Task: structure prediction
Amino acid sequence: MDKNSSTVKASRSFYLHEDDPHYKHAVIIPYYHDGITNDVKVYLRRHTDSSAEVGFIPIHATIKHRQPSIIFTIVNALLTQTRYYIPWESAEHIHENDEAPLFYNPATTYLISKVLKDDKVVMKIVGDTWYVWYPLEKLIPLEDVNYILAHFDIEFSEHTLDSDFKLTASTDTVAVDTLSQINSHSEYLKTRITQTSPRPIDYAIVLDDDQNTMKHIYEALYAGQIMVTGEEKFAFYRGYKNEHPPQEVLQSLKLIIFPGSVQSVYDSSLEWMPPLSEFIQRVYKDHPHIKLIGGCYGHQLIAHSLGGRVGRMSARDGYNLPILGREHILPNESFFEQGWVQTYLLKNNLTRDLMPKLILQQAHGDHVEELPRDAILIADSNSCNVEIYTIPNRVLCFQSHPEFNANLQQELSECETYQFGDMWDVHGDFQKHKYLKIQDTKLGKESRNMMLGLIREFITYKVEQDN
Result:
């Protein structure tokens, strides 16, 4: 495909030894909205060294092997395809350098936060493609910007939308399918950009890991992989600072996610842990319309809060603690009895016998020893007796990390062990053996994207479908 074409690339093999991601492409349109005149200007780009007769187009990106969710693809494209200009139009994030994760630059963390938390970022999902309108804080000074970007053979153009938020530019300057892409979402774009009151929150993520290496990471991992329409609104709370969704949010909330953490739920020194457990108990009892999802630490936290028991693992034959890397998860009969599992299999033309092996990344030293009341065990593994449990149509918890791909898992693990001084042994040699299982392919192809599809099905599955 010519680099100046506005056509999205066809599907291919995206990840080595991993099933293909559900969301593969992004089409990104920077825009500026004048709150006084209500004018909206969009900015398109083209490569000036291309011989193809194609007009200006949005920013296009396809997910890459290293990127664990489409959010990282969007952020990377905004940075690289504008030569860092657009995200830097407001350089407030420079002051946050000392809080940036070890393995991402501050511009990346700033953009992740803005894409997920700024309600003026408008997203729409169509098939495997995310359409993203990225809001600018001010008009782009085109002449000055294009003078600089000319060194990179890039040129930007500015186009004003009409009163119906449609683009009517000449096809001599704008690619034909770009007009279609922008105008097909004009009504939704107008509603979102001109909204005067905050949208209700659909999903909440309660973060329980205060490490700098995880700053904005869990947010991007989950939001970028469980959205279905792009219209879902997220809110994020720091459980480790006693932040929880307030009562007014709980009334309309559909889902709360509790992701991973380096903490242990039985650590009595964590003062924020009892209030968090009490919050989970209250939500479970008083707000039956809210589904709860827990991953790794969150899986343990929900079990602990609802009357189960969590403890430190004992090493089994062939396993060292912590459990790290790919693991074959073994669904049982109850797994296939769940309505959302059956619906997922039906939608994907799968049967129990045809479903691929469930192989996911793990990173834990604690485990659930006893299930909470009403919970059903639906999967175990050779390393852990409780891999996945559910309280039907209400709670789904998994010990694994389907939100991680192998590259992110490796990077996170190495950063953590570097911090704790465990990366080298007493002889000063790098302990590569600790990380080999992360990339180990002996078990077969990693199927995290199938698991993420099952999670999305659980979230949207209606109890009435069982009747």
About this structure: The longest strand covers residues 25-33.
